[in-house]
Amino acid sequence: MPDRWFTPQGMPLNAVYGYVATLLDLIAQIGPQPLLAAAFDESLGTNFRNEIYPGYKASRELPDEALAFQLKACRQVSEDLGISCYAGPRYEADDYIATLATIGREQGYAVTVVTRDKDLGQLLRKPQDRWWDLSASSEIDRHAFYERFGVWPEQFADYLTLVGDNVDDIPGVQGIGPKSAATLLQHFESLDALAGAIDGVADLPMRGAAGAATRLQEGWEQVLVSRQLATLHSEVEGVCMPDRLSISEAQRDSLTSRLAAWGLPSALIRRVHAATRAGE
Description:
This is 5'-3' exonuclease domain-containing protein. The protein folds into two domains: 14-150 and 234-271, 3-Layer(aba) Sandwich (Rossmann fold); 153-230, DNA polymerase, domain 1. The chain has twelve helices and five strands. It has helices at residues 14-30, 48-52, 65-80, 93-106, 142-149, 156-163, 178-188, 191-195, 209-218, 220-230, 249-262, 266-278, and strands at 37-39, 84-86, 112-114, 130-133, 138-140. A hairpin with a 4-residue loop joins strand 4 (130-133) and strand 5. Helix 1 runs parallel beside helix 3 (65-80). The longest helix is centred in the N-terminal third of the chain and has 17 residues, at 14-30. The radius of gyration is 21 Å and the shape is elongated.
């Protein structure tokens, strides 16, 4: 949408407005004092996947000054709200989220991942886990994920390995699309099982089975590389369970003053004030 709000210095604020509004919607739906964390990407070109494959996310451009300002502002708002925030040069936001999900699940919590990114669907490991796209009012569990992709969440990294991911510049296996990848994983369950039985691919009831078997044999080294790129890292050091969301009166005043100084509309600021008081 066109830029509508700007700081006094001329920086756009549309992304900040949308982020704050989404946070308020989320807090309103999940109730007071939730365990809530946010992760931000600060690793474009520097994360460990670039050491494995230099072409990873090579088509992405670094954010320009205006977008960089808004990303930093979104993190400032999150921290002012008392939300635990994670980012770093070696790991992606997805890896921090995967680690948080693992820690939370180990402590007996249901995990809800709020994102539009399908890659994070691989975190749906328990029946109570949810992948929540607030913008589409869509909440997906393991079975709904299977209905959508034809594979289980724990198979999804292998699925992405086979089909590739143009958004992240992950090479797939030529000629293997979503349907073929789902068929392979329904039959073999994992790439580990497939590795010792590639010859059997030619006999599967799928289009181009013989050619797929040949391309898998010839490109298996790249398959193993792509698998490392597609798999989320769930043991990032320094990540711990977030505290329950809470904000003091001083924090609230500081946050609303910041939003006003940026030039965000008073209606949004009133929503922030009301939402933070409701969580007391």
